[in-house]
């Protein structure tokens, strides 16, 4: 009886120890129970479950086989989805949002960086070449159309296109051509014909097969006969007649009349040219992108202020101009010119320069001439000062220099030189 009590006591103590040490000493439990239950030795494989050492106490409760459901509640103990919620912890797209962090297009905008640094890495020759190229793209050139006031008659070698050329070379960049297409004595329609904006045609004649000159008669759409080359052929040659390229020349005979001749450039077939066949000037295919300056009307051939405005409009539309300057007449006074000048201002705005009033108000100051005592009369009446003129119509070197300066300033005010200035700022001058 005593023996059984001891045995019962031993079992109770073992159970108490098992429960009490369940959380702290696994090895002691196994040793205590080994003497009474040899089957617990078979739990050794579970004791070595090294990866999950913290679950060993529940796994080794082998004596209470009924606890197996609790031991195997692996989902609660290991709840791997919650503990290793890799998508939330590693959320690689948020942490490594490479497109936002690296935003390569914004950080490595190489074209802009190269544009800023490129001039510094260029040789002097390369820099100059790029500067000239961009400047020429902005302003390929300037062409000036007109009569003797454009040509520079009375200017002692000076003309307003010459002054304009010098100012561009000095203040901007050299290499932008200013073409002087001024021809003395010409009227509005002949200027327009040379520029290719007013039709000119020939009377009938036989086109020779050779390159010998042949006399022709040239007439304009308005019925006026003219010898376009009597005083120059600026912007005219080579012309094309019936598909044949050649040159127009003029000469005066002893009878006092001028004669016009056509000389084909290359020999070819002889054929009959009908009356009214058009003549195409070289300027039709020239001066693409050029700034045009038009100064005509001093020699007349317009009936009214409205008529001259229409001729200027025909000139602008015929050449498809967007960048242009119109120079007003420099002769006359306030009473005689006010209607025409007002019509021009209303029609063309800042493209039109009232050159008469400009010369009166500040012409002497521009060229550094001291004003004279009688200037007050000129200012009151709106008459250009005599010391700016070579005769009653033509300017002198000071007058042309003032005109060229005023034209330059107006082009600058209209933004015509902005492209050149940008190129200079980029590459230096």
Outline the structure in words:
The chain folds into 3 domains: 2-77, no CATH class; 124-182 and 284-427, 3-Layer(aba) Sandwich (Rossmann fold); 200-280. It is built from 22 helices and 14 strands. Helix 13 runs antiparallel to helix 22, helix 15 (160-171) crosses helix 21 and helix 19 packs across helix 21 (397-413). Helix 17 (305-319) links the parallel strand 12 and strand 13. With 429 residues, the protein is α/β, with parallel strands linked by helices. Residues 1-115 have low confidence and may be disordered. The chain has a 7-stranded antiparallel sheet, covered by helices on one side. The chain has a 5-stranded parallel sheet with strand order 2-1-12-13-14. A two-stranded antiparallel sheet has the order 4-10. Helices cover 45% and strands 14% of the residues.
């Amino acid at each position: 009886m005593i023996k059984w009590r001891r045995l019962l006591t031993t079992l109770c103590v073992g159970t108490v120890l098992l429960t009490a040490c369940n959380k702290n000493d696994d090895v002691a439990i196994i040793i205590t129970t080994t003497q009474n239950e040899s089957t617990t030795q078979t739990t050794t494989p579970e004791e070595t479950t090294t990866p999950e050492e913290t679950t060993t106490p529940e796994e080794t409760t082998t004596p209470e086989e009924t606890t197996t459901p609790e031991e195997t509640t692996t989902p609660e103990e290991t709840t791997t989805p919650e503990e290793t919620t890799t998508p939330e912890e590693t959320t690689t797209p948020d942490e490594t949002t490479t497109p936002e962090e690296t935003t390569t297009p914004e950080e490595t905008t190489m074209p802009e960086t190269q544009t800023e640094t490129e001039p510094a890495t260029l040789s002097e020759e390369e820099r100059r070449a790029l500067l000239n190229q961009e400047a020429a793209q902005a302003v390929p050139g300037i062409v000036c159309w007109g009569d003797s006031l454009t040509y520079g008659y009375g200017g002692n070698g000076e003309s307003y296109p010459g002054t304009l050329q010098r100012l561009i070379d000095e203040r901007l960049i050299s290499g932008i051509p200013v073409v002087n297409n001024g021809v003395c004595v010409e009227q509005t329609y002949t200027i327009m014909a040379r520029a290719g904006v007013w039709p000119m045609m020939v009377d009938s004649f036989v086109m020779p097969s050779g390159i010998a000159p042949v006399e022709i008669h040239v007439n304009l759409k308005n019925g006026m006969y003219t010898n376009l080359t009597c005083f120059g052929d600026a912007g005219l040659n080579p012309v094309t007649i019936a598909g044949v390229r050649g040159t127009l020349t003029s000469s005066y005979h002893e009878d006092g009349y001028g004669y016009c001749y056509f000389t084909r450039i290359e020999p070819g077939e002889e054929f009959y040219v009908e009356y009214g066949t058009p003549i195409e000037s070289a300027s039709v295919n020239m001066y693409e992108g050029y700034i045009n300056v038009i100064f005509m009307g001093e020699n007349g051939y317009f009936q009214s202020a409205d008529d001259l405005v229409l001729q200027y409009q025909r000139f602008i539309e015929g050449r498809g101009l967007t960048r242009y300057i119109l120079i007003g007449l420099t002769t006359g006074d306030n009473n005689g010119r006010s209607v025409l000048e007002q019509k021009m201002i209303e029609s063309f705005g800042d493209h039109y320069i009232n050159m008469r009033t400009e010369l009166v108000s500040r012409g002497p100051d521009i060229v550094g001439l001291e004003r004279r005592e009688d200037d007050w009369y000129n200012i009151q009446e709106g008459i250009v000062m005599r010391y700016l003129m070579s005769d009653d119509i033509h300017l002198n070197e000071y007058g042309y220099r003032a005109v060229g300066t005023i034209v330059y300033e107006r082009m600058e005010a209209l933004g015509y030189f902005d492209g050149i200035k940008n190129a200079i700022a980029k590459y230096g001058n």
